[in-house]
Amino acid sequence: MKITDAQVHVWQAHSAERPWPPESLSQPGGFVAVPGARPHRAEPLGGAEMVAMMDAAGVDRAVIVPPSPAGDSNLFALETAAAWPGRFAVMGRFDPLAADAREQLAGWLEQPHMAGIRMTFHKPQWSRWLEGDDEAIAWFWADCERLGIPLMLMAPGRLDAVARVARKHPGLTLVVDHLGLHSNLRDAQCWPDVLGLLPLANLPNVAVKASAMPCYSSETYPFRNLNGMLEAVYNAFGPRRFCWGSDVSRLPCSYRQAVDHFLEELDFIPAADQPWVMGQALSALLRF
C-alpha cells in the first residue's frame, strides 16, 4: 500500500525576506487558525524533518498545504517539493482578488509540483467570498473547472455554499477539509457539522478529507469517541471520496499514531478499501 498524507504543513519562521502577516506574529507559543483550535507547534517544520517523520511512520508521499497564518506565499512549499522529488505535491494558496489573479490561474498547474489550490474561508475576510451567489469570485470557480484545477476547501459552517458551487460547476473537483468541522470543537460538539456534511455526498464532484482528526478529540489514542462520526462520513462518501490526512504540524499524538488510527483502529473500513482511504483516492483526485 502506498500511503499518501492528504495534508501536512511545512513552514519557515518569520523573516525580513519572507515576512508573516502582522496579525500572525502576535500568537506566542504556536499559531492557531481560529481561537480554540489546537495550535501548530511553535518551531518551524522543514522538509528534512518532514521526510524523516514520513519515513519513520511508513508514509510514502504527502500533500503540502501552506498554513494560512504564514501568509499567501507558496515558495517554501514548492522549494520543499523540489528538494525531495516524488515525495510531495503542493495545494497552494491563492488570492482571487489579486490584480493578476486570472493570469496566475491560467498557468497554475504549470508550476512544478503544484497540484491545485487550497482555499480557506474560516475568517470574515475570506468567508464573504461565499456570500450570495458567489459573484465576487464567480470567475474563479468557472476557470478552475475549465482548467481542471482541484480545490481543497476549509469552509466550516459554509457547506451550503460549497454545495452550491459543486452543483453549479459539476466538473470542478472539490475536497472538503477536516470533515467540514469548526476547528474549535471537540468530541460530540462536532456532530452538527458532520450532519451538515453528509448531504454533500450526493454530489459526485465533492470528496472529503478526514484530516486532523486527533485534534477534534479530547481523548488520547485511539480516539474512539470519533468512530461514529468517521463511520457515518465513510459510509456516505465511500472509499474513493474519503481521504486520510494528518495535519502535521499540530497533532496531539505521534505521526505514527495518526497513521495507525486509520490502519489499525477503524474496523468499519474493509482491508480492501484501505489503499483508497490511505492515498489512492487522493492521488486520483489530484492526479498525483
Automatic annotation (TrEMBL):
Residues covered by the Amidohydrolase-related domain: 5-279
One Pfam entry name: Amidohydro_2
Source domain of life: Bacteria
Protein name, as recorded: Amidohydrolase
MF terms in GO: carboxy-lyase activity; hydrolase activity
Keywords, in A-Z order: Hydrolase, Lyase
InterPro entries, A to Z: ACMSD, Amidohydro-rel, Metal_Hydrolase
Protein source organism: Ramlibacter agri
Gene3D superfamilies, per database record: Metal-dependent hydrolases
